[in-house]
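Troubleshooting entry. The earlier prediction with BV8 gave an output that would not parse, so I re-checked the input for stray whitespace and re-submitted. Clean input:
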Amino acid sequence: MADKIVILTGAGISAESGLGTFRDEGGLWAKHRIEDVATPEGFARDPALVHGFYNARRVQAASAVPNPAHTALARLQRDWPGEVVIVTQNVDGLHEKAGATAIHMHGELSGALCFACGHRWTAPPQMSPGEPCPACAAPTGRPDIVWFGEMPYHMDEIEDHLLGCDLFAAIGTSGQVYPAAGFVQGAAYAGARTIELNLAESEITGAFEDHRIGPASEVVPAWVA
Ligand SMILES: CC(C)NC(=O)[C@H](Cc1c[nH]c2ccccc12)NC(=O)[C@H](CCCC/N=C(/NCCC(=O)O)S[C@H]1O[C@H](COP(=O)(O)OP(=O)(O)OC[C@H]2O[C@@H](n3cnc4c(N)ncnc43)[C@H](O)[C@@H]2O)[C@@H](O)[C@H]1O)NC(=O)OCc1ccccc1
């Protein structure tokens, strides 16, 4: 029985597709305060600011193309005799554009959510305050994104995959945000081998047995090959 592989991806895998990361030089959090644009409180305080932040990223992500790291993971998922599960913190659709399937634990820019009735629909390119819900007609549409202080999506499914995997890999993540940053401990505890692929050391480098340092577009295809 071929190994089961779980791969966690972060903003670093999409950096070479032109999508800014959060914490690197000139990253998203250098230009915006997390509290203002990525918390439910910030959305309640100034929905126009938050919609503006995600509208700009939605347009950028729509024209972005996958890089060799995304395509290598799609190939691995297609050709590996065992199960390959991609869990992403990213809200861009680049894994899917590369032909892979991924569990979006922090939501997707392409999605809209009604915080009154819970209905989900495809987000229009530009959302605005009071965005009407097509199901309950209430003016309560928000980006379908997991903000700080909110429970990430698909956690039970993800935990099942972590406890049953033979190899856990993390690609392009700084390991500063939980619960994603704790996945390596869960997988290692369940007996999985662990590898980190990143441009530089991260907050959780010490938790991994193996490492590949370099740009994702180079180290990921080399690792998959
Ligand atoms: C800041 C941090 C301390 N705070 C948290 O972790 C909080 C609070 C918290 C919970 N538990 C804790 C325990 C301890 C301390 C704090 C907490 N967590 C939460 O609020 C979470 C919700 C967090 C989700 C917030 N939303 C995001 N994103 C969507 C929004 C949006 O996209 O706008 S988080 C966002 O930042 C996170 C980190 O970003 P990265 O992807 O890692 O990107 P970053 O820029 O940081 O790093 C890039 C990396 O790539 C590398 N790189 C760059 N270029 C390349 C390149 N070319 N190639 C390769 N690598 C490269 C760089 O070297 C770097 O290492 C990602 O998750 C990303 O999605 N919710 C929650 O905990 O709910 C309750 C709960 C309780 C129990 C069980 C479950 C839940």
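This one parsed fine. The chain has nine helices and nine strands.
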